[in-house]
Amino acid sequence: MQSISLRWLFSILLVVGCSTPLPFRSPPSAQTAKEDPETKISRDFRREAKKTLKLISDPEVDRYVNQMGQRILSSMGPQPYEYRFFVIEDSQLNAFAVPGGTIYIHTGLIERVRKTDELAGVLGHEIVHVKGRHMARLSGMDPLNLLALLGVFLAGAGAQGQMAGVVGQALAATRQLSYTRSLEQEADTLGVKYVAESGYDPRGILNFLKIIEHERTLNPVDIPPYLMTHPVTQERIAHVELALRSTSPGRFRGEALDPIRRIQTILRLQKYEADAVIRENEKLLVGYPANAEPVHFLGLAYHHKGRLAEARANYERAKGLNPNTPGIDRDLGRLYTQLGEFALARQAFERSLNVAPDESLNYLFLGELFEKEAKFSDAISSYLRAQSLAPLWPEPAQRLGMAYGKTNRLGDAYYYLGRSHFLQDEYEKAMADLARAIKVFGPKSARGQAIQDELDAIRSRGK
Ligand SMILES: [Zn+2]
User: Fold this and answer.
1) CA 229 / ligand 1 centre spacing (Å)
2) What is the CA(192)–ligand 1 centre distance, in A?
3) Counting runs of H as helices and runs of E as strands, what totals does the chain give?
4) d(CA 223, CA 301)
5) Which of 27, 162, 224, 371 could cross-link with 379 by S-S, CB 3.0 to 4.6 Å?
């Protein structure tokens, strides 16, 4: 029961992946030529945000927030938008939703929650703002005005307090974009409902509101941006408590192995705080030398610094202390891959897949292992699986483009590179790569024509 062999798993993958070398599907949002104004706002905003904001690109962090978002969305039935979740490197406590399904969370918020359930509460709340079209309902704003206002808001977020004029305007924009009390209540009531239905503990949002309310009393001058767009009052807290009373307790799965602290540690490493992470976790170990978590985090910090021998010693020790340490097998798999210990890497990924067979990250990193072993068709199968599990994630498409390139399947290489650009909202590059793919396949071939349809769909949406 415990050990599904990887070979068996891959024989399935190979069937799925290779007999139909291309489970051919157009990129989800290229399918409809005419898109609604809010989807366009989201696209335009994302393109601007990439230039202005510092986004965290770590795959673990990316999947953590996107899977959480998708899990909440799964309890809400079919959605008119494609939701994307991004993490902004910014110490301010903030999260915001752009009409059309794009949601941003600041690292400052993720750092302050104590449990994944709290973050799920915030995401659920933001999703309801999008789903209910709250920003458009704010003042019956037309989409262009809304986008302009969001642009000013974005400029303020990027300036981070350096340019007083921009910040002042951004503050005014933020005030205009603030949700009304009734919209906040709607987001709280429905957010609690959807979060509970997707198996998170809905009490998380209440805990989170209490954290930020506490923070506000400690520092009444610098009001976190989140509090400006989503004011927290005693009335609001009472309303959330009421909403919680009408959700049935006991249906929450609870996060026995909450990965939040690992994610928080990865975020700190992204901010070049590896030395501080090492110092703090070594200190923690003085009192509790058999605690797997600090040992694991020491491993993460050494791994990040490229000190692979120390990383290995700590990962292996953490695994020995607690085999269920969240993410430990995937971390071991990646490290062994780097060290050239391919058999050990494969065993680690196999364990990771046993725990999470639908985790796209496992397939992405397994693909890396196969590439390092020069097993390119296995790598391609693995990346295809990662892609089918996370169709809006650009990473697998990019890896597929590279892997097909290495096997001289240039049509596929260009196609997937184009797809990766498309998923990153880089439409000019996407169209150029798709045009190259069509040339390789031949414009009259079935593949060539199918790709031409996708290209036309992207082009017809205009800028
Ligand atoms: Zn809100």
Assistant:
1) 7
2) 12
3) 24, 3
4) 33
5) 371
Predicted confidence (pLDDT) per residue in 302-359, tens digit: 999 999 999 999 999 999 999 999 999 999 999 999 999 999 999 999 999 999 999 9
Whichever domain contains 417, its CATH number is: 1.25.40.10
Label residue 34 by pLDDT band (50, 70, 90).
low
* Segment (H or E) for 102: strand 102-106
Sheet holding 95-98, edge to edge: 84-88, 102-106, 95-98
C-alpha distances in angstroms, 316 versus 313, 326, 447?
Answer: 5, 13, 47
- One domain, residues 66 and 204: yes
Ligand 1 mean position, distance from CA 417 (Å): 37
Distance, CA 71 to ligand 1 centroid (Å)?
Answer: 20
- C-alpha 266 – ligand 1 centre gap (Å): 27
Residue 257, domain member (yes or no): no
Q: CA-to-CA distance for 463 and 461, rounded, in angstroms?
A: 7
In angstroms, the CA 67 to CA 52 distance is 25
Verify that 215 and 91 share a domain, yes or no: yes
In a domain, 426, yes or no: yes
Is residue 105, in this structure, part of any structural domain at all?
yes
The count of structural domains within the chain is 3
Residues 215, 358 share a domain: no
Q: Are residues 365 and 417 in the same domain?
A: yes
Q: How does strand 102-106 pair with strand 95-98?
A: antiparallel
Indicate the angle between helix axes 446-460 and 410-423, nearest 10 degrees: 20
Q: Could you tell me the residue range of the domain that residue 318 belongs to? A: 272-294+301-324
Q: Domain check: are 16 and 78 in the same one?
A: no
The Å distance, Cα 99 to ligand 1 centre, comes to 13
**For 47-73, what is each residue's pLDDT tens digit?**
888 888 899 999 999 999 999 999 999
Which residues make up the environment of ion ligand 1, defined by Cβ < 5 Å? 179, 184, 187, 230
- Domain co-membership, 282 together with 174: no
Q: 17 with 134, same domain?
A: no
Residues 145 and 283 occupy one common structural domain: no
